[in-house]
Design a protein that fits this description.
This protein is an alpha/beta fold and about 260 residues long. Helix content is about 20%, strand content about 25%. The chain has 4 helices and 28 strands. The protein has an 11-stranded mixed sheet with strand order 1-4-7-10-13-16-19-22-25-27-28. Strands 2-5-8-11-14-17-20-23-26 form a 9-stranded parallel sheet, with no helix packed on it. An 8-stranded parallel sheet has the order 3-6-9-12-15-18-21-24, with no helix packed on it. Helix 2 runs antiparallel to helix 3.
Length: about 260
């Protein structure tokens, strides 16, 4: 049977797998569903239309599925969806979505989310991200796979951060951060590319060289964005092994709506 501490309050309509563990004084609402192997610590509140997948570890004092901090929200049936194998540390707050923007806040799989992280309405956090303590995501933020965010960092609404990018400690992120880049500061500046992270993910020497050249084209050669994109597209033919990395960068630059972080 589900391991529920006798002081926990779980609505009879909530759907918890038999292997779920719930700690003391936790409250779980009627529209919550929790998958197999997930553990929920003490003093958590999980409410709203919240779906949580398998083998997550949710530490004490987290608030998941509360109404969004958006004055336009009027009680509509929006959602929070959390995937599998995430670690969610103490005092994290993940909000529901709002209508008109999809209405769903999504957290993917295998994310390491440290204490006091806030994920606002309609954010999308993909897979394998690391969010250090006090990371704050405003509404509609998108973090792609393998993004790393340093502690005490704030991310402006509608910002996108590309795959494998790294944001340093105590940064203010108000523009999009292209894939693979290393940024920090307030105002935000591009310092290089995330070579250490890419090596840890077994990027080959040709792929690393292609990423390095994309960084040069965007930030070191005085090119316009259009000129840099033309040079980046040419890399796919020059380095076929990096064709997917080049395509990833091109898609990101094409879809960017806030402009990209600049070199300083």
């Amino acid at each position: 049977m589900t391991q529920v501490h006798p002081t926990a309050l779980i609505d009879p309509k909530a759907e918890l797998d038999a292997s779920v563990s719930v700690g003391p004084y936790t409250i779980i609402g009627p529209h919550v569903r929790v998958g197999a192997g997930t553990t929920i610590g003490a003093h958590c509140v999980i409410e709203g239309r919240t779906t949580i997948g398998r083998d997550n570890r949710i530490f004490q004092f987290s608030s998941l599925g509360a109404v969004p901090q958006d004055k336009k929200y009027a009680g509509e049936p929006t959602e929070l969806v959390i995937g599998d194998r995430n670690v969610i540390r103490e005092f994290c707050t993940f909000n529901l979505g709002v209508p008109g923007a999809g209405g769903i806040t999504r957290v993917g799989n295998d994310n390491w989310i440290m204490a006091y992280t806030h994920i606002a309405h309609d954010c999308r956090v993909d897979d394998h991200t690391t969010l250090a303590n006090n990371t704050t995501l405003a509404g509609h933020v998108h973090l792609a796979d393998w993004v790393t965010i340093g502690g005490l960092t704030g991310i402006h609404q509608f910002v996108s951060i590309g795959a494998h990018a790294m944001v340093g400690f105590a940064s203010a992120v108000s523009q999009d951060v292209p894939p693979f880049m290393l940024v920090d500061g307030n105002p935000l500046a591009v310092r290089g590319f995330n070579v250490v992270g890419l090596r840890r993910r077994d990027f080959s020497a040709p792929r690393l060289a292609a990423v390095k050249q994309m960084h040069r084209l965007l930030y070191r050669q005085g090119k316009t964005l259009e000129e840099a994109r033309a040079g980046i597209n040419a890399l796919a033919a020059e380095t076929p092994e990096a064709a997917e990395d080049v395509a990833l960068m091109e898609r990101f630059l094409f879809n960017s709506t806030r402009g990209i972080a600049r070199w300083k």
